[in-house]
Structure formats: C-alpha cells, structure tokens
Amino acid sequence: MRVVVAGSSGLIGTSLVAGLRQADHEVVRLVRRVPAAPDERGWDPDTGSLDADALDGADAVVNLSGPGIGDKRWTPERKRHLVQARVRATEVLSEAVAKAGVPVLANASAVGYYGDTGSQPVTETSAPGTDFLADLCQRWEAATTAAADAGARVALLRTGLVIAPSGGLLGQLRPLFKLMLGGRLGSGRQYMPWISLDDEIAAIRFVLENPAISGPVNLTGPAPVTNAVFTRALGEALGRPAPWIVPGFAMRAALGELADSALTGQRALPTVLEANGFSFQHPTIDAALAAATGR
Fold it and tell me: What pLDDT, on the 0 to 100 scale, is given for residue 160?
C-alpha cells in the first residue's frame, strides 16, 4: 500500500514508518516544515494547508499528530491547546481524505476515552468517561466524521501506555528506578493498559491491512495490570527494588490535574484485535518489559 503518515517523527510514528517499509509498503511522511526528502510532503494543520499531491495515490492515511498529553502541567491554556491541536489536525486530514477519496483513515486516539474505570474491564463498546481526557478523545474521534461520511473505512486507534526501549513511559521512569526512587503511585490499584512498541506497530499494520476492522480499536496488551504490579515488574526488569509510595496528594500538589491521569486508569481489553485474529508478540507485562529493557 501507499500509506501517508502524519506524526511520523514521534515515538510511534518513527517505528511505524520503519515497520511499514519493512513490510514493503510505500510511506509518505507529512511534515510541518519545507519538505527536504522525496518521501516528504508539507502540511500545516493550523492553516489547513496541505501539499496538493500529498494524498495522490494513497491507499491509507495514518494520523498520529498531536502534542504530548503529559509533557506539561494542565493549565487551562494547555488543555485548550491539547484539544484544539488534535481536533484541528484530524479535521484537516479527514477532509483531505474525503476529498481525495482515500479508502482508509487510521486515526490516533487513547484509552483515556473511557475515563477512570477502576477494576471494571472495558472494551470498544464501553461508554465514554466524563473527565478531561475522555472529553478530549471524544472530540478527537468525532473530527474524523468527514472521512467516514465520504465512505472511508475509519479506525480509531485507542492506544494505551506504550512500553518502548527508549522514550515513552520507560523513558520517564527508568532514571527514577535506577536511582532507587521507583515506587507505586497512590494506592497502586489503578490499572495500566500497556502495550509493547512492537505490538503497537504490528497492530496498526494489522488494522491497515484488515478490511474487516473499522471503528474503535483498543491497542493494548491482553493482560492489563495494576500500577502496583507494573511497578514491581519494572523494578525486577531493571534489577532495582521499588519500595516507595508516591502519595496522591503529593502528586496533585506537584502536577495539578495532570496527576489524575496517573492515579486513575482503564482495564482496557483488545477485544477487536483478538476477535480478528491478531497475535501478540508480548502478551504479558513481563515479556514487554524484558524486550524493552534487554533482559
């Protein structure tokens, strides 16, 4: 296939481009600067501009564009930016997909769609939550309407916490654990819907290549674990004990509302992937952490 990827420079995007090319797909990368390589096309979501030939011959568009959710404290201005950046970029690409007649749009979303679900398992048919992240995800997904109305197969990629050798969740936690400062967050009972980077990339490819899949798709491992279990497993994978407890009130004092995203969670299950025959390379948190830490 000829696949156009927005957000190709991030953790997932970089690996996705490499994975698609390894599978003999042709990749066109959308960049927000002057294109400098034959596989690049320019776009600017803020102005709605897109190179005229960006989607020529495209069989699918993958939209991973958007600023990091946890990169900064959630001030009112930051929250507006997080929503507007994702919604605007998705609207631009969705309308372009509709105009160009591209048959597939795979659009990033997140398991934050479900809100805090406690220990209750959630699948792609579960109701949305009511907190900030849930509202963001609902608006994000709704911005794909133009493509769906034009007849494109739209897949909503509700991704969990990606376990990668560098960057992502482990990139934030590894330094703390190596300094013996690792520990569970709050009660530790909140679920962490993780997925290995290898399985994340394989799952996106699986969705692109499988015409039976549309609508929401949970990109999570088949066995979500609590924060306490994850913390213990990461400590073992890194050869570092993790005895500490970070109280919820301390996290809220330091991070504000952003702390709630770490103190709550979703026991999200990859029902659609499994129903369509997807096989996980790393089906357990221990396997995912072993691959990411080289142990």
Answer: 94
